Every structure is written in structure tokens, then in C-alpha cells.
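During the reporting period the student researcher (J.K.) took over the structure-prediction task from the postdoctoral fellow and processed the backlog of single-chain submissions. One of the processed entries is reproduced below for the supervisory committee.
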Amino acid sequence: MREDELRDRLRDALGEPPPLATPQLRPAAAASPRGHTTLMALLAGGLAIVLVLALVGTRVMLHPQGRNSLVPAASPAATPAAAADSFPCALAAMVTVEADGGTPASTQITYIPGFVNMPSGEFRADPRASVADLPHAPGFGPTVYSAAAGRWLPAIPNSVSPDGLRYAYVTQAGASSSTLHVVDVRTKSDHPLWTYGAGVNVLAWDDHGILVMTVPFSGGVALFWRIDPATGRASRAPDSDDPNRVPVAALSPGSGGFSPLGSDGRGTTAFRLGSRDAGTAYSVVLVSGGRVTATLYSGRTGDAKDFDPDVVSFDAHGIWLANFDSTRVWLWRADAGLRSFPVSGMPMASIPPGGHAYESLGTAGACMPGTFTGVVASPVAAPTPSPSPSPPVVNWTPLLARPMQLPAVSPGATCPASDVQHFDGQVKYAGGKISNGPNYGYGQWPAYLSGQTDWYSAGSQGVLVLTSPEYTGPVLMRVRRLDGDATVAVDGLGQILGSGAIGIAQGGNAPYWGEADGAITFSAPGCYGVQLDGNSWTSIAVIQVQKGPPPPG
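J.K. obtained the following C-alpha cells:
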């Protein structure tokens, strides 16, 4: 008897099962046993006997139910359905291989969706991971796996509805408005829900609705909104609703900032506190209700633990975390701590002489009972070497002749430091990498000073100039102290033009924000002005440089 025929007969005998509640993250010891009536227990026992007789001597294969679904291959068990937190299980994952043929222009990025079988740690690619039949934003492929829908979705994890059957995405009409869409995975219908005259980022979809952040296209103050997924009605939300917001008390001076790793969609977010610089003290914590509720690990970057997570997924097993270098996956439970699983079967790129390759692994959904067969991940084809494009030739004379417009600040006076500005859009780095950040800076449209939120006078610090996609011409940068004498050294940002001026040949990189990066060193603390000039515009940023080196990590 075929499995689907057997399943149909069981359904006819018992009726449709009640809908399953979304799994709650909790220790196994806290789970309460399921209760059954005597009649249902007898009926289940009788059916179990029939099922065993039908399957004796037969290998049971759990076949996919619908397109792009998990293809587990599990051995027969004592019960027809395994518990949601059981092993073996298949963890949805995304492998990213970034390779180049020796030049930035030859950089290619390959995404390979699949599953890591647990506890063996073997990665298998999913050859049927396609989202071509689903509406989505440009540039999105299979990104997250929905166990409820039984397929890959073209959406970021936090934009998927709590039931896993819908997702939200955003389209943009030039620099005039953005529209929030909701897609029903079952019907593949696309419903434009809400339009707003600014950039829109989806932050979360939880029981309270869809949380979005809006940022003016030319830069400005970020606002938060709750959108009703049924009606499209919008209401302002407090900044405290932002799942990427970490309590200030949890940050230590000089820790290197923080980065959100993922959320469970119910108000709990995992954060890494501290940078990935070798030897830096860091922690991975859970934040809920504006406070740290658990610490998964505290140590120093590069220590013997080798706990270096990138993104996380929450499910009935606990919290899954994958290392940046794709060597291992971790499972954390409140009652058991961290458990490590070495990963095998990862693809790599064939690299020509002088080329490079970088591989990373990220979780992309829950770990579902069963074993995913899939296919062995094939090596990624080597990128074709190509010469880097020549930078445009710029006549800097007109920009160098433009007068400085920095404010005057008397010694000892309060520094009129610029407010941070937020903006929407992806950033394209010089090597070709596309990133969702940084999305903040100081100054005015179309160019901003970025790279730090706190500046110090001892030692060099990273500095960025971010330029809007609308402006692709040259950018001239000049820096000076406003409340006294000091020298400023800028290295690697662009062409050194003399008298402290730095020339960036190309600003924006439509449709992406342009990025120029380097290092900056201030000889003394004080109030500094940064003037960015382009064809027909000037952007001014004022920053306060504090005394001494950045606090140690």
C-alpha cells in the first residue's frame, strides 16, 4: 500500500486532525504530557496494529507533500509521527559561497539552499528549492524555509507570518513611495497592503501585526509602524518595539557594538554583544521586554570554544546557531546549554590562481523530524578573471576651489555635533559585495560620513563615506578641527589631493549606495567638521572626538 493511500484511509477513519499550535520555545522538562480519552487510546492502538501489519518488511519513505517541500527519509518509528523536538532532524540552511578570480570585478556570490541533517551534520542541497511561482521583491531567491507551507520562500525570516503561511515584502516606486505587500503562500496571491512616502523596511511579523520602519529617502529620522495584515491600517509604534534594539545597560564601553542574530517572532531576539575582532570580549544573549533574559555564551573572539554564530533559528529543539566559517552548527537549550555539531558536505568554489573563496553557513528555518536526502552539493564553478574597471578620470579643480562652509566653534564651547541620519537601501562595496548596511551616517543628502558612532583621538579608526544611488559623480572630502589646532590623517579612502583633501572618483553605484572606506586618525580630541562636496551639492557633518584610544574590548 502506498503511503499517501494509507494516510488517506487513516484520515477517513479519524477525520481531519485539529490544527497544530505554533511550537513554544521551552525546556523539554517543562512540556506537559498530552492527555487522551480511553476511547481514543483504544482506537489509536488498533490503528497502530493495522499500520504495523501493513508496513512489516517494507522500508518506509516519507515523500514530499507538495512542491519544494522537505524530502526526509526516516526509518519506521514506534509512532507514525515524530515529536517536533526529536532527532534525527533536518535543519533548513543556506550556504553562501563568495569567490573571485583575483580581481574585484570577477566576484561572484552563489547561494545554495538545503538542509543540514542532525545529529550527523551532513549538508545536502535541495535541488527543488525554487520560488519562481511566488511574488517577491526583485533579487530575492529561496531564502527561508517554512515548515508549515512545506517549501522555500523568497522572504527574510522576520517577514514571515506566525503561522508560516504568509510573508511580506516591499516594492519601491523610485524615490517617491514604497508599498508593503502580503503574499498568501497557499493561493500565491499578492495583496498590496500599505503605501507610504518613504523607504519601508519590514522588521517583524508577530501576533500584534507587521512591524515596519520607515526612513525618508533623502535620510532623516526613522519611524516605527504597526500594520494590520488584514486591513492595512497603520498606527505608530514606540521605538521600544524595534526587535533590533538592545538594552543600553547590556553594552559595555568599547565592546565593539552589537548585532542582532535573529528573532523568534514573539518578542525574543538573539544578539551578539561585541565585535568579531580577535581577542575582543563578547557575549551572545537573548533580549525580551527590553532586558537580557539569558546568556548563551560569554568569551573572547577566537577562544577555544570556537563559538562564532552568524544567524539563528528558533524551534521546538531550542535555538540553532551556525558558525560564520560553516564548520559547525550549535544548539542551545535553557536546560542543557550549548551543543556542537561539526558540519560536512559543504560545497566550495574552484578557484583559479590568484583567486579567493569564502564560504558561510546560515540557518534558514526549523529542524524538522526526518532525514533530508537531497543531493550532494556540487563545487561552485570558478569565476572568470576579468580586469577591474578603470576609475573615472576626475578634474578636481572646481571642487577644490569651493569654499569651506564649516561652522565656527570657540575653544571650550559645546560642539554642535550632527544628529545621526538613517536611510534606506543596500550598499555595494568596492569588491562587489552587496550588503544591507551600514544604513546610518552624519551629514545631508546625498553623501554621509559613517563607520563610527563614537570617535577617539588615539589610534586609527575605520571611516566610510556613503553616497546615495542618485548621485554617481565625484565626492571631495575635507576635514579640520573647529575649536583649535590639530592634524587629521586619512588613509585608503580615495585619492590624496593635498591640503588634507581626499577625492572619491565615484559616489553612488545605482541602484545601490556607493561606499568608500579607509582609516582616519585625529591628533587631538575636540570638535571636528567634515565637508563633502559634489557637483552642485555640499554635505556637512560635525563630530565630537573624545580623548584617548577606544576603550579596550
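The committee noted the following: Residues 89-369 form one domain.
J.K. will present the remaining backlog at the next meeting.
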